[in-house]
Design a protein that fits this description.
The protein is an alpha+beta fold. The chain has 2 domains: 147 residues, Aminotransferase class 4, branched-chain amino acid transferase, N-terminal domain (D-amino Acid Aminotransferase, Chain A, domain 1), CATH 3.30.470.10; 161 residues, D-amino Acid Aminotransferase, subunit A, domain 2 (D-amino Acid Aminotransferase, Chain A, domain 2), CATH 3.20.10.10. 22% of the residues lie in helices and 29% in strands. The chain contains 7 helices and 18 strands. Strand 12 and strand 13 form a beta hairpin. Helix 2 packs across helix 3. It starts with 18 loop residues before the first strand and ends with a strand. The structure holds pyridoxal-5'-phosphate and 2-OXO-4-methylpentanoic acid (COI). 2-OXO-4-methylpentanoic acid binds next to loops.
Length: 338
């Protein structure tokens, strides 16, 4: 096998041994299939290409000290993909089929699950999309579901380190009653221009404010936001952000730590009162925030002066990673051990 430098992996595509697929036609899902090819043959009028009938997911598998592989909260990803399917009028994949496909893809690519010591993990990417041709705007009658996997390191350079973020009011990612709550490709296309601009200016990513009033913190790049103050974990309540499974896990862990958890509107100015702040997601895990620059108001909200993550961010990060790698007991039943 090609030599993989497990400890220096970034977050990028890597070919692994195989992917798992399942097709929907004549009103039903077929059997799981295993493919070695990374390519597929697709009708040029497929609804996914023209009208964005597509959704994807992201979850991870971890190798523990005991050598066992643990998959984190896969049922929640199955349920979220069902919501995304309903939101785009795609065929809904049953939870059991999703879970069976995840287990199959991980087991068949087991040699790509990074060793415990590397701190890396196996990223699992399910994707579901319309494949039958339509030129009028209507849903497809046929769908394809694929899962591929790849070993990954940290999403943001440097891993668990503080980085700067930026607020820019001239971009929106999603509308209050739009698609932001679903994990569909169009939301990411909508974020590319703003994301690239933020990267060029030296930021990890951009913060979106609520599109209607531009008053409240919505979401940052491909991650949810949380702030910490007075022993409380505070995170936006919004109809235009993705319900993050990592964020939900952190809210539960914060409660376990005896913290107060608040899910509510966060006015931009309230940033000045937070002791710590972070971005969270499967890929980002917790990305502690050094500062948020308000580009339009020429203002900075600073959360770390020494480049180090805050103590609560660190405690949450260690607990979450501990559960994922099997170093801490899985008291909430989040982990599937293979
Ligand atoms: N928000 C967006 C826009 C995302 O793409 C992601 C990544 O999945 C998240 C939040 C975090 O969600 P999760 O913790 O379920 O990965
Ligand atoms: C994730 O955290 O799983 C994501 O989907 C982020 C991303 C790479 C889009």
């Amino acid at each position: 096998m090609e030599q993989i430098d497990w400890s220096n992996l970034g977050f990028g595509y890597m070919k692994t041994d195989c992917n798992v697929r399942c097709n929907y036609s004549d009103g039903k899902w077929g059997e799981l299939e295993v493919h070695e090819s990374e390519y597929l043959s697709l009708h040029m009028a497929a609804t996914s290409l023209h009208y964005g009938q597509e959704s994807f997911e992201g979850l991870k598998a971890f190798r523990g000290k005991d050598g066992k592989i643990r998959i984190f909260r896969m049922k929640d990803n199955a349920l979220r993909m069902q919501d995304s399917s309903a939101g785009t009028m795609m065929a809904v994949l049953p939870t059991e089929v999703f879970e069976e496909a995840v287990l199959k893809a991980v087991k068949l690519n087991e040699r790509f699950v990074p060793p415990y010591e590397s701190g890396a993990s196996l990223y699992i990417r399910p994707v579901l999309f319309g494949i039958s041709p339509e030129v009028g705007v209507k849903p497809a009658t046929e769908y394809m579901f694929i899962i591929f996997v790849m070993p990954v390191g940290p999403y943001f350079k440097g891993g668990f380190q503080t980085t700067p973020f930026v607020i820019m009011r001239e971009y929106d990612r999603s509308a209050p009653l739009g698609m932001g709550k679903f994990k569909v490709g169009g939301n990411y296309a909508a974020s590319l221009v703003a994301g690239e601009r933020a990267h060029k200016l030296g930021y990890s990513n951009i913060f979106y404010l609520d599109a209607k009033e531009k008053k409240y913190i919505d979401e940052c790049g491909a991650a949810n936001f949380f702030g910490i103050k007075d022993n409380a974990y505070i995170t936006p309540k919004s109809t235009s952000i993705l319900p993050s499974i990592t964020n939900r896990s952190l809210m539960t862990l914060a409660e376990d730590f005896g913290m107060k958890v608040e899910q509510r509107h966060i006015p931009v100015e309230e940033l000045a009162t937070f002791e710590e702040a972070g971005a969270c997601g499967t890929a980002a895990v917790i990305s502690p925030i050094e500062r948020i620059d308000d580009f339009d108001e020429n203002k900075s909200y600073i959360f770390s002066h020494d480049g180090k993550p805050g103590v609560i961010c660190e405690k949450l990060y260690n607990k979450l990673r501990g559960i994922q790698y099997g170093d801490e007991p899985d008291t909430h039943g989040w982990v599937t051990v293979i």
